[in-house]
Amino acid sequence: MTQPDIIVIGGGIAGTSAAAHLAEHANVLLLESEPQFGYHSTGRSAAIFIRNYGNAVLRALNNAAAPVLQSGKGICDSGLLSPRGELLIAGSGDLEELEDYARDATGLEHLSPEQALELVPILRPERIAAAILEPDAQDIDVDRLLQGYLRLLRGRGGKTVTNSRVCGLTHDNGLWRVATKETEYFAPVIVNAGGAWADQIAQMAGASPVGLTPMRRSAVLLDAPQEYNIDHWPLFASVTESWYAKPDAGRLLVSPADEDPTHPHDAWPDDMVLAEGLYRYEQAVTVPVTRPSHSWAGLRSFTEDRTPVVGFDPAKDGFFWLAGQGGYGVQTAPALAALCAALCTGEAPDLDEGTVAALSPARFAQG
User: Fold this and answer.
1) How many domains is the chain built from?
2) Could you give the CA distance from residue 218 to residue 295 in angstroms, rounded to a whole number?
């Protein structure tokens, strides 16, 4: 391709979806430091779409993304969601947290302990004082979503490069110089979709970091409890977010729901964190925990206000932030990609002004 108009740094779901949207309007180059796209957080996602997950800004993004995920329009030949549901359970000391969650939520059903047990029969009845169900929570086919965006990007003439870690960023005469070990690229606009590395990329470019904190989230796969067909069980979790479990291809994915601050790296699980989380899970169910067949960890990067950062840096021309998605990156990708394309091309965003302002990196300069 000729000199690109926009270089997107980071080939997770955020950068890939944004690049695909931008390629409709501009020459786009997508750079990924790893050998494959979606290697870090995207490839280690719990793959669940929960409309009521996150703060008010994130719920607005969830609602904006839902029609795209449901239909797959423009990305895949069919929808990317399948039925699952989310069941949150509360003990006698957790009822206030349950009500806090439900207060601003939509589409929830309050269940009795008996109704909760009908959905997940291995739960300990004495541990359930109340429960709520979000029937509309759905599994996301993350790989189809990522591959669909990659096809869309390439079909629109966009270029992709893997094994291309950025090691230098400078700005001169209206162009960003993006240096890798192998070569250099130049473009008037760069999109920082570096995930846990986004603050490092910003500092490389001479921009002020926004205070991202990468947090480890771990998970294991357990054999399904004998004599139970778990395929239609919902994701079930403690409302205190001390553990959650989800059927996954005939096995149970169980997570301690850890959020341990760390540094940007190829994350791995901590054995003690897993053991403590599995103990909390085991106290809530009637079946013993078996030896995990597989364990892994990923990084969820949050700003202090736990809201993504999307928009042009107020102090660096042509430097666009697309970071801080925390644990919401996959389910908000269609909405944030569309917003990125609108802001980069000067079009009016589909999101309301308040949501766009709440996402802007300018909030850090002001504060």
Assistant:
1) 2
2) 7
**Alpha helix (H) residue ranges in the chain:** 13-22, 56-71, 95-103, 113-119, 142-155, 198-204, 271-284, 329-345, 353-359, 362-366
DSSP code at position 163 = S
Last residue of a domain, one of 280, 302, 324: 302
In this model, does residue 142 exceed pLDDT 70? yes
DSSP string, 272-294: HHHHHHHHHHHHHBSSPPPPPSE
Looking at the structure, tell me whether residues 118 and 217 fall in a common domain: yes
The neighbouring-strand residues paired with 260 are: 216
Token pair 């959650």: residue: 244
**Chosen domain end from 268, 302, 336:** 302
pLDDT for residue 3:
87
Burial class (CB in 10 A: 0-12, 13-18, 19+), 271: exposed
User: Residues 246, 94, 236, CA angle at the centre, nearest 5°?
Assistant: 10
What is the domain-level CATH number for residue 225?
3.30.9.10
Q: What's residue 365's pLDDT?
A: 82
pLDDT in tens, 255-271: 999 999 999 999 999 99
Residues whose CB is less than 8 angstroms from the CB of residue 181 and which lie 6 or more positions away in sequence, other chains included: 165, 167
Whether the model clears a pTM of 0.90, i.e. scores above it, the answer is yes
- Give the residue carrying structure tokens 């020459």: 27
Q: Which structural domain range is residue 235 located in?
A: 86-135+213-302
- Least Cα distance to 193 among 4, 6, 11, 5 occurs for 11
Q: What is the CATH number of the domain that holds 44?
A: 3.50.50.60
Cβ within 8 Å of residue 278, ≥6 positions away? 220, 243, 254, 256, 289, 292
